[in-house]
Amino acid sequence: MKNFKDVWEDAANSVGGGGVSMPSGVSAKKKKKDLYDGRTKAGRKFVERILARRKAAEAKRIDNEKV
Q1: Distance between CA atoms of 61 and 53, rounded to whole angstroms?
Q2: Cβ(42)–Cβ(36) under 8 Å?
Q3: Which of 38, 44, 12 has the alpha carbon at shortest distance from 4?
Q4: Helix (H) and strand (E) counts for the chain?
Protein backbone atom coordinates (compact mmCIF):
# COMPACT_ATOMS: atom_id res chain seq x y z
CA MET A 1 0.00 0.00 0.00
CA LYS A 2 1.35 3.44 -0.96
CA ASN A 3 1.65 6.09 1.66
CA PHE A 4 0.55 9.67 1.11
CA LYS A 5 4.02 10.97 0.19
CA ASP A 6 4.44 8.41 -2.61
CA VAL A 7 1.04 9.24 -4.08
CA TRP A 8 1.79 12.97 -3.91
CA GLU A 9 5.12 12.54 -5.72
CA ASP A 10 3.51 10.39 -8.43
CA ALA A 11 0.88 13.07 -9.06
CA ALA A 12 3.46 15.87 -9.17
CA ASN A 13 5.64 13.97 -11.63
CA SER A 14 2.77 13.07 -13.96
CA VAL A 15 1.51 16.68 -14.29
CA GLY A 16 4.72 18.23 -15.60
CA GLY A 17 5.79 15.55 -18.05
CA GLY A 18 5.35 15.51 -21.79
CA GLY A 19 5.09 19.25 -22.34
CA VAL A 20 6.96 21.37 -24.84
CA SER A 21 9.77 23.35 -23.29
CA MET A 22 9.58 27.06 -24.01
CA PRO A 23 12.10 29.84 -23.44
CA SER A 24 11.61 31.68 -20.18
CA GLY A 25 10.73 35.00 -21.83
CA VAL A 26 7.78 33.60 -23.78
CA SER A 27 5.64 32.71 -20.78
CA ALA A 28 5.69 36.24 -19.32
CA LYS A 29 2.60 38.16 -20.46
CA LYS A 30 2.73 41.85 -21.14
CA LYS A 31 0.27 44.13 -19.39
CA LYS A 32 -2.48 45.27 -21.72
CA LYS A 33 -2.51 49.02 -22.31
CA ASP A 34 -5.71 50.78 -21.30
CA LEU A 35 -7.66 51.99 -24.33
CA TYR A 36 -9.12 55.06 -22.65
CA ASP A 37 -7.90 57.19 -19.80
CA GLY A 38 -10.82 58.76 -17.95
CA ARG A 39 -8.87 61.97 -17.35
CA THR A 40 -8.62 62.80 -21.05
CA LYS A 41 -11.26 64.38 -23.28
CA ALA A 42 -11.57 61.18 -25.34
CA GLY A 43 -11.91 59.13 -22.16
CA ARG A 44 -14.70 61.32 -20.83
CA LYS A 45 -16.56 61.10 -24.15
CA PHE A 46 -16.19 57.33 -24.05
CA VAL A 47 -17.65 57.15 -20.54
CA GLU A 48 -20.55 59.39 -21.60
CA ARG A 49 -21.33 57.07 -24.54
CA ILE A 50 -21.21 54.00 -22.31
CA LEU A 51 -23.53 55.59 -19.74
CA ALA A 52 -25.95 56.74 -22.45
CA ARG A 53 -26.11 53.24 -23.93
CA ARG A 54 -26.64 51.74 -20.48
CA LYS A 55 -29.46 54.20 -19.75
CA ALA A 56 -31.12 53.51 -23.13
CA ALA A 57 -30.90 49.75 -22.61
CA GLU A 58 -32.41 50.08 -19.14
CA ALA A 59 -35.28 52.20 -20.50
CA LYS A 60 -35.89 49.69 -23.30
CA ARG A 61 -35.93 46.82 -20.80
CA ILE A 62 -38.42 48.65 -18.58
CA ASP A 63 -40.66 49.43 -21.60
CA ASN A 64 -40.63 45.75 -22.60
CA GLU A 65 -41.62 44.69 -19.10
CA LYS A 66 -44.66 47.00 -19.14
CA VAL A 67 -46.01 45.49 -22.35
Answers
A1: 12
A2: yes
A3: 12
A4: 2, 0
